């Protein structure tokens, strides 16, 4: 069975890896297709031609009025600078390449503020508020006008100008390439959304497993990033006033969602650390938004205010991962790999943006995908283990249910056995004009081996038997029932105690399976006021007489029943008087313990009987029962079945 489960888990791993490879393959195919299309069609990067700039304190309605000698050439591969307060930046480059294009446009990947574009003297494009996360397709006249001029007046505190790719292209070519470049993001977004819904479903099935909820939130945030940065976001550009705030809030929320996910998988100390970092992230974000509030650009300006906390979060995540991994926690290796990949990818792209690295290829999207892939694998593995755990628990539950049903049936059988045993016992209260009888029995389990009986013959005389089968429980109860039948068989000889024990012993020998029975038997002649008794290895019984100085102990010799086939029993006779009380009992009374481990004992019993000797039989019986109950703290320290039979001579 374990081999089958192991095989299924290995198969699951292979399928998951193949799924990741297929998605990456689709992405790379579209990226390669896009690259090949770019290589095969006419286009010109602005970075490869001469570029010039000019700072002006006033807005120029016609940038061509500036003398040629006031334009300053760019020294680096850039189209922007650090912002100067209350100054306009003008950037100029030649438009001669458009002669080779049928429907020329200028593709600008990103600009971080509103700007105007002039082709010659004509203003051909004005960027709108909230356009700073979208690429710009700027239409141009097919006839060169000499120069393209960008006018920037930025509210962004960190940078002014164009960034990333700025390329002359055909309009149709630009649209196709834009779609193809963003297809993988557009394709990936709904997959992430569906997975988010699936894991949310897992959470509702297992509400205690917060990892499913947190991973669902992380996937939802990731799907929004992919959708809003892809062709979907570009297609919804007319709703930029809603799309841009949503995108930036989600950019800020994603690290927070990542921290929530890490909280649900890391050991307790790091969970508390990540909770502290997550709370700091939220507080610093709102402080940054409040301090940098300005319509249309607030989210962009606030980035500089809270970027340092994101860097701190990355450092904390890296060192936490390394520490946990170094301590031998291999269960989190997928999480650690995912964290390291996204941080390395983010660092790489930051170095590209800062022009520390000369190439312009960005890997954050692939790092982002691989991180989610590793995280997804971890969560799927957790779900798989949880599923098997549930199956094991269900199997154990079924086994426990069967065991419970068996125990319930045993309990029913014990209840029936208890009822049957009660029916075998004589009534606990009986009396006539000369005798009063009270009996009590407290079994250690549902059924027990103690047994008492009393019967009256045709002459009005009474016979009393109390027996104790060795051990306790069902086997002892069955032997007690056999003793009852043996006593009934000796009915014609009730007035001869030794004869009764002889007949009972002959009936029981060889049938008790290593169990034996101790017993006391008493026959009271109500006419002559004599009591004849025999004993079969049982404790002596007591005679309480008000005129005596102490409790009288009545003893007769004899061995237990059921052990030896040829066994004789002695008989003893004692005279009795009105008001006499006689107590027959089992040794369970002596063995009763209290909380300190002290036994009730013979002396305590005799002392109690003597102290309350003047009470009537009912009261004396109640006092004895209550004393035994309180001594053992509600029978908590009972070690054996216990019974007694009290007889009063009227």
UniProtKB/TrEMBL annotation:
Protein's UniProt keywords contain Hydrolase: yes
Occurrences of domain PPM-type phosphatase (ranges): 432-649
Entry keyword Iron: no
Listed SMART domains: PP2C_SIG (SM00331)
Transmembrane segments: 7-26, 187-205, 212-236, 242-266, 273-293, 305-325, 332-351, 363-380
Coiled coil spans: 387-414
InterPro entries, alphabetized: Bact_Sigma-Reg (IPR052016), PPM-type-like_dom_sf (IPR036457), PPM-type_phosphatase-like_dom (IPR001932)
Pfam family, one: SpoIIE
UniProt GO MF annotations: phosphatase activity
Domain of life: Bacteria
Keywords: Coiled coil, Hydrolase, Membrane, Transmembrane, Transmembrane helix
Entries under PANTHER family matching the protein: STAGE II SPORULATION PROTEIN E, STAGE II SPORULATION PROTEIN E-RELATED
Protein name (database record): Serine/threonine-protein phosphatase
UniProt organism field: Leptospira bouyouniensis
């Amino acid at each position: 069975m374990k081999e089958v489960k192991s095989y299924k888990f290995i198969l699951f791993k292979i399928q998951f890896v193949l799924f990741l490879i297929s998605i990456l393959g689709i992405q790379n195919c579209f990226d390669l297709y896009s690259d090949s299309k770019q290589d095969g069609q006419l286009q010109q990067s602005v970075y490869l031609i001469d570029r010039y700039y000019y700072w002006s304190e006033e807005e120029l309605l016609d940038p061509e009025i500036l003398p040629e000698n006031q334009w300053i050439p760019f020294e680096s591969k850039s189209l922007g600078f650090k912002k100067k307060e209350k100054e306009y930046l003008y950037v100029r480059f030649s438009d001669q390449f458009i002669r080779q294009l049928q429907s020329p446009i200028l593709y600008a990947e990103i600009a971080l503020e509103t700007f105007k574009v002039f082709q010659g003297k004509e203003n051909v494009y004005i960027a709108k508020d909230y356009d700073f996360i979208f690429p710009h397709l700027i239409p141009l006249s097919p006839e060169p006008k000499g120069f393209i001029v960008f006018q920037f007046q930025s509210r962004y505190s960190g940078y002014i100008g164009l960034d990333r790719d700025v390329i002359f292209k055909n309009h149709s070519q630009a649209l196709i390439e834009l779609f193809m470049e963003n297809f993988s993001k557009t394709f990936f977004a709904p997959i992430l959304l569906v997975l988010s819904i699936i894991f949310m479903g897992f959470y509702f099935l297992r509400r205690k497993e917060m990892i499913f909820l947190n991973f669902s939130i992380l996937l939802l945030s990731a799907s929004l990033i992919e959708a809003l940065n892809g062709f979907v976001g570009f297609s919804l550009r007319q709703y930029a006033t809603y799309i841009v705030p949503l995108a930036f809030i989600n950019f800020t929320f994603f690290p927070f969602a990542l921290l929530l996910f890490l909280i649900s998988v890391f050991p307790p100390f790091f969970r508390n650390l990540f909770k502290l970092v997550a709370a700091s992230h939220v507080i610093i974000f709102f402080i940054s938004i409040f301090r940098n509030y300005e319509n249309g650009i607030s989210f962009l300006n606030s980035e500089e205010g809270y970027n340092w906390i994101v860097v701190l979060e990355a450092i904390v995540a890296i060192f936490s991962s390394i520490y946990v991994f170094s301590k031998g926690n291999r269960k989190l290796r997928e999480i650690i790999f995912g964290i390291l990949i996204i941080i390395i990818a983010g660092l790489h792209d930051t170095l590209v943006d800062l022009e520390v690295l000369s190439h312009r290829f960005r890997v954050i999207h692939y790092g982002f995908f691989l991180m989610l892939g590793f995280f997804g694998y971890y969560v799927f593995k957790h779900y798989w283990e949880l599923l098997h755990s549930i199956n094991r628990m269900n199997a154990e539950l079924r086994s426990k249910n069967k065991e419970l049903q068996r125990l319930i049936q045993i309990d029913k059988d014990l209840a029936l056995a208890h009822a049957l045993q009660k029916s075998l016992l004589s009534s606990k209260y009986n009396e006539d004009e000369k005798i009063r009888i009270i009996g009590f029995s407290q079994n250690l389990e549902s059924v027990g081996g103690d047994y008492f009986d009393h019967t009256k013959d045709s002459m009005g005389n009474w016979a009393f038997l109390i027996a104790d089968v060795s051990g306790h429980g069902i086997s002892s109860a069955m032997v007690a029932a056999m003793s009852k039948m043996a006593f009934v068989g000796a009915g014609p000889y009730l007035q001869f105690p030794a004869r009764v024990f002889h007949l009972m012993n002959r009936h029981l020998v060889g049938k008790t399976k290593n169990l034996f029975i101790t017993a006391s038997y008493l026959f009271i002649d109500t006419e002559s006021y004599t009591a004849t008794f025999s004993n079969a290895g049982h404790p002596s019984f007591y005679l309480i007489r008000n005129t005596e100085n102490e409790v009288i102990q009545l003893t007769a010799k004899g061995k237990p029943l059921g052990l030896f086939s040829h066994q004789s029993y002695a008989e003893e006779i004692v005279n009795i008087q009105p008001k006499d009380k006689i107590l027959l009992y089992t040794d369970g009374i002596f063995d009763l313990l209290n909380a300190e481990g002290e036994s009730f004992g013979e002396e305590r019993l005799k002392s109690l009987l003597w102290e309350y000797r003047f009470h009537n039989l009912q009261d004396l019986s109640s006092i004895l029962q209550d004393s035994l109950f309180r001594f053992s703290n509600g029978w908590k320290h009972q070690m054996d079945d216990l019974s007694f039979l009290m007889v009063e001579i009227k």
